[in-house]
Automatic annotation (TrEMBL):
This is LPS export ABC transporter permease LptG. GO terms for biological process: lipopolysaccharide transport; transmembrane transport. NCBIfam families: LptG_lptG (TIGR04408). It is found in: Cell membrane. The gene is lptG. Keywords: Cell membrane, Membrane, Transmembrane, Transmembrane helix. One of its GO terms (cellular component) is ATP-binding cassette (ABC) transporter complex. It comes from Histidinibacterium lentulum. Coiled coil: none annotated. It is a multi-pass membrane protein. The lineage of its organism: Bacteria, Pseudomonadati, Pseudomonadota, Alphaproteobacteria, Rhodobacterales. The chain crosses the membrane at residues 12-32, 60-79, 99-121, 283-302, 309-327, 339-363. Signal peptide: none annotated.
Amino acid sequence: MTLHWYFARRTAASFGVVGGLFFILISLADLIEQARRHGDEGAGLREVVSLTLFNAPGSLYELLPLLVILSAIALFLGLARSSEMVVTRAAGRSALRALLAPAAVVLVIGLLALAVLNPLVAATQTEYEDRASALDDRGASVIAVDASGLWLRQDGPGDGQTVIRAARASGDATRLSGVTFVTFSPSGRPTSRIDARAAELVPGAWRLHDAKTWPLGEAAVPEAAATEQEILDLPSRLTPEEIRDSFGAPALIPIWDLPRFIDRLQAAGFSTTRHQMHFQSELAMPMFLLALVAICAVFTLRQSRGSRTGLLVLTAIGACFLLYFLRNFALVLGETGQIPVWLAAWAPPLAGAALALGGLLHLEDG
């Protein structure tokens, strides 16, 4: 048990040092980028620093696999060079038993990242996007989904706004049913309401079918001034790409809220493949980190000297990045529906862990 605690402390210390160094480097680089990007827009030092602090957790979270790779290589090289693994084997402990403590620490890191860091990153990234959008004058998201349906916002006549509500929508939100358009003046007062059986986004306009329009401005009796049209085109600068991007990245949604958000998207008629893929890939992250540690152990746990050490380190990094590439490729296939979502998320880390385990059994335990 003492040996396991020792290896666990070494693993945690290695990850802490690597993670701390990367956090400092990321923060300094992002501080320079935020100052360059927003310095001309009137942002002071305080605002630039706050943007950096809000953006840093997300950048560090994206680099979590790299942090695990580098910390595992540093740990195993240190154990090999100090002959601690030789002593461990001489004491009757196999390499696999010696790896239990590092694997447990990495598993805990993965679970903490999933349960704690993921919601934190979602909150900080959302705050960062809001503050950056305010400085860039990009405006807020144009789309929202709740239990009542889909809500869209677009520029209206003049400097006003148009709010769109639909009971259901197609997967890309370009075809709506049970739709209502409410236009507002620049002062925020409603000027008209349009109900339609269906609406579809065509280049430069929303094309409404079976539309009825009520003026809400100065008309004393809106129903008396209402008009009906079989086809009505309303100008719009929205594009399918803008609507899709306005959902926001699934990473901006905390892992605990993602299932409910997926249910709301399904109820509104949207495709949820991208969000389901992200959810499953996040659940598989701890297993993916374990696979990376096992791959690093295969190449760097053995005692070696001279240029052979550098070659083994490069091979370990190359093998880990190959698994990372295959995982991302599988995620793309899952998002496009080429393979099942669960298979795309879980097959690469499980296969990588199995191959690494086989390599350890062959090289270390005969």
